[in-house]
Predict the 3D structure of the following.
Amino acid sequence: MNLPRIIPRSAFRIPHPVQIIPRSMFHVPYSVPKRGALLLELLIAIAILAVILSVGSQAVYVSLQSGKTSGESDTAMGLASEALEQTRAVADEKWQNIYDLTKGSQYHFVQSGNKWATSTGSELITLNTGSFTRYVVVQNICRDTTVGVRDVTGITDTDGTATTCTTSTGAFDPSTQKVTVTVSWSGNGSPVTISDYFIRWRNKVCNQTGWSTGGSGTTVKTCPDTNYDTISPAGTIDTTGGTLKLQ
């Protein structure tokens, strides 16, 4: 008769678990002292943080500089537009106020009483964002002589200081002037330059009482000068009574 085999209790004893040595996130085995591994991880983390902060600070600096440059450019554009409006006010009062200015030279405007007046040289404008230098330059222009066209072909010879149009072709137009405003400052984006054409839209009327030698036909005449040019051929115009009458 076979009897069941008795297995001693000690055979069911669970052996001690095998101790698994964990590894750090950088795969440094714990055979290295734990304190040294933590120090290494700390140094690496500090280095990574330093790189992130450096890149971040540069990005913030570039962003601030870009905003500063944009703000200065907007301010300069506003100052330039203001100078064009000042020029328009001066020209509307009297065309000779801008036509008689030395072409190619720098001017700015000053308040004289309740109106604007021209002054030589540039002006320094100090605002919250910095200091800006502003000046205005007036130039003569040429127009296409084609009938029905009359387009502006450019400034006259010698950078708009002459009254000849050999370079730009066409003919000199004393009733149109090119006005350019330049605003500069110490910073990126400097300078800002804008320009516009100003046209004499009205003329001062003088009562002409005579017709005798008074110029070559291109001289700008002002009232009360009532002698404009010669009669050719003589006797073709009757000026009696203060009027012009073709014979």
